[in-house]
TrEMBL record:
The keyword Cell membrane does not apply. Keywords: DNA-binding, Transcription, Transcription regulation. It holds the Pfam family Autoind_bind. The keyword Transcription applies. InterPro entries: TF_LuxR_autoind-bd_dom, TF_LuxR_autoind-bd_dom_sf. It comes from the Bacteria. This is Autoinducer binding domain-containing protein. One of its GO terms (molecular function) is DNA binding. Residues 21-166 form the Transcription factor LuxR-like autoinducer-binding domain.
C-alpha cells in the first residue's frame, strides 16, 4: 500500500484525505495535483462541469478553467473516455502525436503560457456508467527531461495514489451526493414522483395509482433520466439512487410532491 505521509495541521478545503494526497504527490517531486470527477451528462448539458479537488498551485488555473468553460473542450476527458486500458495521458506527448484538436490544444497552451504549468500527466482511475475520474499531476519545471524522469520513476505510485483516493471518495455517500447534486437539484416534481415509484419496486403499470402519471409518460421520463445520468441501466440508476440515500428520502419526496 502506498504511504500517505502525515501533514501538519492546517485548513483542509477538500478534506484531510486530499491534503494527504497533495503531500504524497509533492513528496514524489511533482508541483501539484488535481482530482477530477467528470459526470457523463457534461455531454448533454453544457452547464454541468466536472467536480475538481486541487492543490494550491493548481488553484489559479482551475478558476480560469471553470470560468472559460474548458471542461467541455478538455482533450484529457475525451481521451479518458476512449481509454479502455486506463493508460496514463501525458498532455504534451498527446499534442505532439497529433491526437489533439487545435481548440483542445489551446487549453494546455493557456496553462503553460499564463499559469506556468509546463507539463502534466493524467491518471484515469474510473470509467463508469455515469462518470469518469482520475488525478492529474503537474510540473512547473520547464525541463522536459526532469518531467519524464519523474513520470518514469513514479508512474506505479501515481496509479496507486489515484486508486486509493478515489476509493475513499466513492465509498463516502456524502461525497457521492456532492458530486451529483447539480443533477439532483434539477429534478422536477414529476421526475421525483417517478423516482419514488421506481424505488418502491412496484411495476410501472401501477404508477397511475401511486403517482397519477400514465405508464407511457412515466416510461419516457424514466428513460430520459437514465440518459441524463449517463445512459445507465434501470438497475444501475436504482443502485446509484440508493448510494445517494434516496431510499432514506422517500418521505421527503412525498412531502415535496404534496406541495
Amino acid at each position: 500500500m502506498t504511504y500517505f505521509p502525515p501533514t501538519p495541521e492546517q485548513p483542509h478545503p477538500f478534506g484531510r484525505e486530499f491534503t494527504d494526497l497533495t503531500a504524497a504527490i509533492s513528496h514524489l517531486g511533482f508541483d501539484g495535483v488535481l482530482y477530477t470527477f467528470y459526470p457523463k451528462p457534461m455531454y448533454l448539458c453544457s452547464k454541468v462541469q466536472p467536480v475538481l479537488h486541487y492543490s494550491e498551485s493548481f488553484a489559479p488555473f482551475v478558476a480560469h478553467y471553470i470560468k472559460s468553460n474548458y471542461g467541455n473542450r478538455d482533450f484529457v476527458l475525451r481521451l479518458a473516455v476512449q481509454n479502455r486500458k486506463k493508460k496514463p495521458i501525458d498532455w504534451w506527448n498527446e499534442i505532439a502525436a497529433g491526437t489533439v484538436s487545435h481548440e483542445e490544444r489551446a487549453v494546455t497552451e493557456d496553462a503553460r503560457k499564463n499559469f506556468g504549468i509546463q507539463y502534466g500527466l493524467s491518471i484515469p482511475v474510473l470509467k463508469g456508467a455515469y462518470a469518469i475520474s482520475g488525478i492529474s499531476v503537474i510540473s512547473l519545471n520547464p525541463c522536459p527531461i526532469h518531467f519524464q524522469k519523474l513520470k518514469k520513476a513514479h508512474i506505479h505510485q501515481l496509479f496507486e495514489l489515484a486508486r486509493q483516493y478515489h476509493a475513499r471518495i466513492v465509498n463516502s455517500k456524502e461525497e457521492l451526493r456532492f458530486f451529483l447534486q447539480p443533477l439532483l437539484d434539477r429534478l422536477n416534481g414529476t421526475q421525483e414522483k417517478i423516482i419514488k415509484h421506481m424505488l418502491t419496486g412496484l411495476p410501472m403499470k401501477s404508477i397511475p395509482h401511486t403517482s397519477g402519471v400514465t405508464p407511457r409518460y412515466a416510461e419516457k421520463v424514466w428513460s430520459n433520466l437514465r440518459e441524463e445520468f449517463g445512459s445507465i441501466t434501470t438497475n444501475e440508476f436504482i443502485y446509484l439512487l440508493g448510494m445517494l440515500g434516496m431510499f432514506d428520502d422517500l418521505d421527503d419526496l412525498d412531502d415535496r410532491s404534496d406541495l
